[in-house]
Amino acid sequence: MANPTTPEPSPQLSNEEDDSSPLRLNGAQALIKSLEVEGVEVVFGYPGGAILPVYDPILDSPVRHIMARHEQGAGHMAEGYAHATGRPGVCMVTSGPAATNIVTPLADAYLDSVPMVCITGQVALPNIGTDAFQEVDTTGITRSITKHNFLVTKAEDIPRVVKEAFHIATTGRPGPVLIDVPKNIVNASNPDAYFDWYYPEDVDLPGYKPVLEPELEAIEQAVELMRTAERPVLYVGGGVLKARGANILQKLAEMGNIPVVTTLMARGAIPDSHELTLGMPGMHGNYTAVTAIQRCDLLIAMGSRFDDRVTGKVSEFAPDAKVIHVDIDPAEHGKIRRPDVSIVGDCRIAMERMVDNIETSSDDGPLTFADHGPWLKRIREWQADYPLVYQPSEEGEYVKPQYVLEQLRDLTPDDTIVASGVGQHQMWASQYWNFEHPYTWINSGGLGTMGFSIPAAIGAKAGMPDRMVWAVDGDGCFQMTAQELITAAVDKIPVKIALLNNAYLGMVRQWQEMFYDERYSSVHLGYDVPDYVGWAESMGCVGIRVETAEEVAPAILKANAVTDRPVVVEFRCDSAEKVFPMVTAGGSNDDVLVDPSQPEPDRSR
Predict the structure, then answer these.
(1) What are the pLDDT digits (tens) for 440-473?
(2) pLDDT score, position 396
(3) Phi/psi class of residue 545: alpha, beta or left (left: φ > 0; alpha: ψ in -120 to 50)?
(4) How many CB atoms lie within 10 A of CB 25?
(5) Backbone phi, psi, residue 459, to 5°
(6) Which of 29, 33, 44, 71 is catalytic?
């Protein structure tokens, strides 16, 4: 008889089931088989004691496992995969510190509505509540940062829970769902861990009924406001992309000749080259996008949540505008700004209904809109007067980060997937990249997670192996998660990293310079420690250093040509550069600060 404390290897799963007798599986096998049924291609994870039984049947499964070097990295990889593919990302880690390490990606996914299923190991059921080794209250800790979470108490519940988790994560407003799995119900040595395999065809969740179809009366009211508005703006958020609504958004904008601003989470929802695209609004949005919202008479908020980084001082945000708010989450309606027309439903379906209403409401043909010519003329004047600008580097100076972004943009395919960290480089990437395709921009918006870009880029490349993937990172962010490049090298995931090394925590430095009398406290990192090229090469990557503007383009082309391993290009950048335009925290969008080289805007209405 085997020692009951020693787990036995799981019997191999057979692809051909005998119909004459039920397939009997243990909890670990059932968990992996459930992932297979859900169409999971890859799991990002890190093994450990409590989850170890589940790692054994992975060896017999077609599901690919990519081992991160830190659990936070596994979570961000799952996020990047979900952003790029539209399918739920899956990560799996053990109990205790592994579960607490996954908290940041869960919070990040929750705020940015990213579909993700996270599986955590837990101590055996009899040990829960005893302060057992590596025990934490995972479901309690993550309750406020997940769309839902489960503590599974019986092995036979695993297929049902997995089915429900994927359903919840991917329907309604997407988000992360956590499944906490005690070790004893997945342990092959436990007779109670076995049951007859099944997989439910549907879910029974009486309290969960997302509203997809909007009310037609609200659609009609919205269209009437759109038809008569003289200065409308479509304020587009990440919800449009989550709803796969990019194509219908462009059609709606063109039908009404309505300019479009795309938030940080919605870049690429409409091509930047489109004549109606105004770019990004908000704290570091461009002047035209910010000002158009402030001067509009109708704000059509589509899958956006009136984030404080967009609104600035709420009482002075779009003061003359009526508001149409379309969002699938009822909790978002009236939370920040009370709408004149509230439409609860899927953004794509709502826009389709708007288009149908416009096309069919009159026997004489499609509805007509007010003349937006004067409004668009005024917008063109703002675009001409206040473009994005920076001063080129002079001989002997380190390169300007904006120039690096322009060169990256111009020297890569227009469907390149770009992931960014958080800080100045994130804002410059959003400002200076031209997003011509949806689902090509991956960043941490709501939580603002430093260290996001490298693991997210790895996840995106794992999901979209035929696409070029660049991560734009700062030196502060890079130092937080660079170890994940080992994963990329070992698993042959050839991502490319543009490291904008300005020797500082750049955004913090900018604020200290502007608002703290240049008292630079705990913000200087230095150019030379660590040696980024040496670090990259030690992790199995190609390392390249760039110090002058003339070296930028050749380095990018060299990186593009490498297809068998990751590449890190360190661009030594001017540390004095600041991100403009800028709206100060809590300030009014009417007081947007433009680049010092530009004339002071006319603040009159």
Answers:
(1) 999 999 999 999 999 999 999 999 999 999 999 9
(2) 86
(3) beta
(4) 27
(5) -65, -40
(6) 71
414 and 369 both lie in a single domain: no
Q: From the candidates 12, 17, 133, 275, give the one annotated as an active-site residue.
A: 133
133 is catalytic: yes
Is 377 in the same domain as 516?
no
For residue 5, pLDDT over 90 is answered with no
- pLDDT score at 15: 43
Looking at the fold, whether 310 and 344 belong to one and the same domain comes out as yes
Count of domains forming the chain: 3
| Closest to 574 (Cα-Cα) out of 355, 394, 335 | 394
Of 134, 383, 483, 598, catalytic? 134
Q: Which domain holds residue 68?
A: 24-196
Identify whether residues 342 and 489 lie together within a single domain.
no
CATH number, position 57: 3.40.50.970
Is there a single domain that holds both residue 40 and residue 137?
A: yes
pTM of the model: 0.95
Closest Cα to residue 417, out of 479, 474, 476, 459?
459
Active site residue 134: yes
360 CB-contact burial (10 Å; exposed 0-12 / middle 13-18 / buried 19+): exposed
Averaged pLDDT, 28-43? 98
Q: Look up 507 and say whether it is catalytic.
A: yes
